[in-house]
Structures are given as structure tokens and as C-alpha cells.
Write a structure and sequence with these properties.
Blueprint: H1 7-10, H2 14-18, H3 22-47, H4 60-73, H5 76-107, H6 109-122, H7 131-138, H8 142-166, H9 170-178, H10 183-195
Helix pairs in contact: 5-6, 5-8, 7-8, 9-10
Length: 198
């Protein structure tokens, strides 16, 4: 049963979720169409070009059966926690490094001129292309996976921070200078207005 406060988050009204009329059944089936389409597409891709005896990709039902088997063995939660551990540390480490560097590059023109060429060289490299280097440097383990997630997140965060600072309207900067703010308070005040306008 769906609680009323949570129902707007799921995209339908509480009264429609608990009603049993034919109109409400049609409404729920309409909401399930994307899932049915994705499941059908996954089934078609899994069966495409395969003989009945050879399965390269699992079907949705085989995937669900594998998940249930892992859950019965008590391994599903363990694997999910391990994946979340890698993703969390990869993203946090990328954010802690990319955001301060991006804010600095966006604020100081000389820093942009010095570092931007290196960024433009490394940014187009696909994260998948870093897999052999990650294995050579860190071996096969959690560190290599964290490094790949770090590389995947670093450049988008870096460029977002740079663009955010460079997009600060000149009126904010001029107003801060008129009030006699030194560069650190000026940066804090203007970037706060830019990044958190509300």
C-alpha cells in the first residue's frame, strides 16, 4: 500500500493507486508501459542472433532468477553494499578534488590559462579507456574500480564548477568591489549568489 505523502513522488495520486475500478486499472497499466517496453527490449536483445543452446546475455526472467538466488544465499546485500562503497568513495573523492580546483580555475584567469590545456587533453578520454591503466596501477580490486568512478566523475564536476564561477554576473562583482570586499569575501559572496540564488 502506498502512503498518501509518498504518492506524488511516484507520479500518481493516492486515490488512483488504491482504487479498483476499470479506469484506475487502465491508468496503472499506462504507468507500467515503460517497464513493459524495457523488459521486451531486453528480452529481444538477449534473444537476438543466439541459438537456443547458447545464451550470451541473460533474459529479464533469468536476471530476476539470478537476483533471487543471490538473495537466498545472502550475497545480494553484500554485493550491493560493495558496489555502493566503490561508487560513494569514487564520487566523494572526485568532488573533494574537482570542485575546489574548478572554483579556483574559474576565478583566476592565470590558473585557467595554465591548467586548461591539460584538462582539454585528458577530458575527451573515455573512462573505459582508463581500465587497462587502472588494472596496471592498482590491480584487480576495489581501488581500480574507485579510480574509474573517480575519473568518470572528475571532469564533469570540474567543468561544472568552472562554468558556475565564470557565469557570475559582473554586477555582483562590481557591487562587492564597491563595498570594499577583498578577494576571498568577494568570491564567497558572489559565488553564493550565483550557485544558491534562492
Amino acid at each position: 500500500m502506498i502512503c498518501p505523502p509518498c504518492s506524488p513522488l511516484l507520479g500518481f495520486e493516492f486515490s488512483k493507486a488504491v482504487a479498483t475500478g476499470p479506469e484506475d486499472l487502465l491508468f496503472l497499466l499506462t504507468k507500467l508501459r515503460p517497464l513493459v517496453f524495457i523488459g521486451s527490449l531486453a528480452r529481444s536483445v538477449a534473444d537476438c542472433g543466439q541459438s537456443p543452446d547458447v545464451h550470451v546475455l541473460p533474459t529479464p526472467l533469468e536476471t530476476l532468477a539470478g537476483m533471487m538466488d543471490l538473495a537466498r544465499q545472502g550475497l545480494l546485500l553484500k554485493y550491493a553494499v560493495a558496489s555502493l562503497f566503490r561508487v560513494t568513495w569514487g564520487f566523494i573523492s572526485a568532488a573533494l578534488l574537482a570542485i575546489p580546483i574548478g572554483l579556483t580555475i574559474g576565478w583566476y584567469r592565470r590558473a585557467e590559462m595554465a591548467i586548461n590545456p591539460l584538462i582539454q587533453i585528458l577530458r575527451p578520454i573515455s573512462p573505459l579507456a582508463w581500465i587497462p591503466i587502472a588494472i596496471l596501477w592498482f590491480g584487480v580490486g576495489d581501488i581500480a574500480a574507485i579510480f574509474l568512478i573517480f575519473v568518470s566523475c572528475f571532469f564533469p564536476l570540474l567543468l561544472t564548477a568552472i562554468n558556475a564561477v565564470q557565469g557570475i554576473p559582473a554586477v555582483y562583482l562590481n557591487a562587492g568591489r564597491n563595498f570594499g570586499l577583498s578577494p576571498p569575501p568577494l568570491f564567497t559572496a558572489s559565488s553564493t549568489q550565483r550557485l544558491c540564488p534562492n
